[in-house]
Design goal:
Length: 114
């Protein structure tokens, strides 16, 4: 009887652990896709040829844009915009990405992100 209970408890723990890991992986994949979309949109908005920055460049710009966008919107007391799950995250990332590209072009006399 104790052996059956131990097996059931271990099975429940294994299922719980597996769903936690899968949930974490799923969350990371969703974040990477959102960053890629954000960087791609920024690339379409600022690039003369609309080429974008490549897959890894888009993801990096989306991630950095999300951080900068969140910081700037908090300074302006507009942080609620990021609470709209998918669209809000993309809008915040695009705003931050545009700020990054604008500042980089100012500092490099327009040579950055061309």
């Amino acid at each position: 009887m104790i052996g059956i209970i131990a097996v059931i408890v271990l099975a429940i723990l294994a299922i719980w652990l597996l769903t936690s890991i899968v949930g974490t992986i799923w969350g990371a994949l969703v974040a990477i896709v959102i960053w890629a979309i954000t960087g791609w949109l920024v690339g379409k908005l600022v690039d003369k040829d609309s080429r974008g920055f490549g897959t890894f460049g888009n993801i990096a710009l989306g991630l950095a844009g999300g951080i900068v966008g969140t910081f700037v919107l908090r300074l302006l007391n507009l942080q609620g915009l990021g609470d709209i799950w998918l669209i809000g995250s993309i809008v915040v990332g695009v705003i931050g990405g545009l700020i990054i590209v604008f500042v980089a072009r100012l500092l490099t006399n327009g040579r950055a992100f061309n």
